[in-house]
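To fix ideas, we quote verbatim a fold written out as tokens:
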Amino acid sequence: MHAMIQESAPRCSWPVGDEVYLKYHDEEWGVPLYQDGELFKKLILDGAQAGLSWITILKRQANYQRAYDQFDPVKMANWTEAKIETLLNDSGIIRNRLKILAAKKNAWAYLDLIEEKGKFSEFIWSFVNHEPITNFRKSWKETPPTTNESERMSKELKARGFQFVGPTICYAFMQAVGMVNDHIISCYRHQEIKNF
């Protein structure tokens, strides 16, 4: 993990003003991830974020880890109605029935995909030809909500039964897991991540 540096360092504009956000920006966001379990977890959390700000989910990440059985896809795929009711009463997470049911369906879809492809990572990274895309944006305003790659990923995931995986969610996921480096060029993390 990258050590925290002082707040005055040049960085992207979006994490300003919150220590949790700064830590996430400085240590996790945009770092290429290849572990299947971690990629699955990020996809589930990005789906939970739909319609909300990312900080809302970020601050509940530990609660999701607990409530969602450590993101174990086998356990999640086998959630009972009783478990879903428990989740709907858990104030530590976003209590949205559609999102909770989608997490269960996504666990099934993930397990099916693993059975077919062997590795989730191979499938996910194929949308960028297994190489991170480095963008050179001068400001956060230049960042598009979707790209051709996120559109294709969304279409393919939906065809495989995944939910809450629209192109905007897919692009946020791609940024988070380092499939694209969308740190602005004046941000100190742009060059660091480019050099991974």
Q: What stands out?
A: The chain has one domain: 19-194. Strands lie at 133-134, 180-181. The longest strand covers residues 133-134. The chain is about 55% helix and 0% strand.
